[in-house]
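=== RUN LOG ===
request id: a7f3
mode: sequence -> structure
chains: 1
length: 409
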Amino acid sequence: MNLKPKQQDFIDLAKSVGMTSPMSRDDMRELRENHGMSFPAWIMRDDARRAGRGLYHVPELDGGTAPVVTSKPKKAVATAPVTKENVDIQTGPVQGAVATVNSDMNLAMGMTGGERQSLVPSKAPEFVKWGHYSDIKKIIQSDVKVGKKNIFITGLSGNGKTFMVEQVCADLKRECYRVNITVQTDEDDLLGGFRLINGNTVWQDGPVTTALKTGGVLLLDEVDLGSYKMMCLQPVLEGKGVYLKKIGEWVTAHPNFIVIATANTKGRGDDTGKFAGTGIVNEAFLERFAFTEEQPYPSMSIENKILTKAGCSDAEFGLNLCKWSDIIRKTYAEGAIDDIVSTRRLVNIITAFEIFADKKKALSKCLARFDDDTKETFMRLYDKVDAETDFDADETETVASADGNVCPF
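=== RESULT ===
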């Protein structure tokens, strides 16, 4: 379609500031607010331009032409073999053992109507870039062959592994397909299967298959909680695509596809008893991750920035919390105590403080999940760090750890 003068002015301005397709609503608002340009409602009204929730195709920015609205193609219908698995999932009569194989992305993502929701994570204003953020971003952006750049991220709970990956994807405007792995996760959950929709058995791609097709970032979260059933992902991890045997379809990996896994262990199990359910991950599975990033807790200065951006209104309280957690972690590393305070728990304490405006109450509520001895130890330690707090006078000065040693508080 030929653009009107005002529409062409908008395209020229967007090009001049380096914008490319697809554009988000925020991009459009930015041009309007910073350059006095009228809002391009003509883009949003064109159904053929929709690329996802809040995203729109503007091929004119890349030298292309406007998309043309065409009638929607009829959904393909394929005859599936009659199997017990295929028939049992129907609550109604079997209609000639015909399964609808729908390649429409809405159904592939488990949505039955409306525009497809974009899976590009939103940028979190409280996020602080630190640690392996730049390395992971560089790996995702690289043009290394699919299957040669998978990443395994390991580290203790609550230090921001998953959040970091999501924010890298937000920064790069890449769709993130997050799958929380459990011991029950199997091929059907990952690759796809037949689902009952309106009385018919319909094939739906799983998150792995959809990410393969679209070139998304596949995030396997808590992968060390999985079982041998994850081995169905071996060809996917190698970048060779996957054969969907239930419908006889071969899916080739998109050039931008990448797999990132997070875990609290290195796949060798857990001897501490803190990560219940984690087990030994198959060595052949682990070997298909080219990079391993060991995620520690952030330094005191970084953690203080995190608490500040998370909404800490009392700078001194935030700094004392960072000092407190640092001492706890060092003591934990030496084996003198059995529990640790994560960055996530510090953010929870800050949130509780903003609600109750009481340091002691905020600490008490967020430490209540620990046993009484550990909670008392942590509370007393904070009393040592922050002289302004006034905890109960009858609390003991020292508390014995689980092995009988006395914690030096």
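=== NOTES ===
Residues 315-333 form the longest helix (19 residues).
Confidence is low (pLDDT under 50) at residues 70-115, 393-409.
=== END ===
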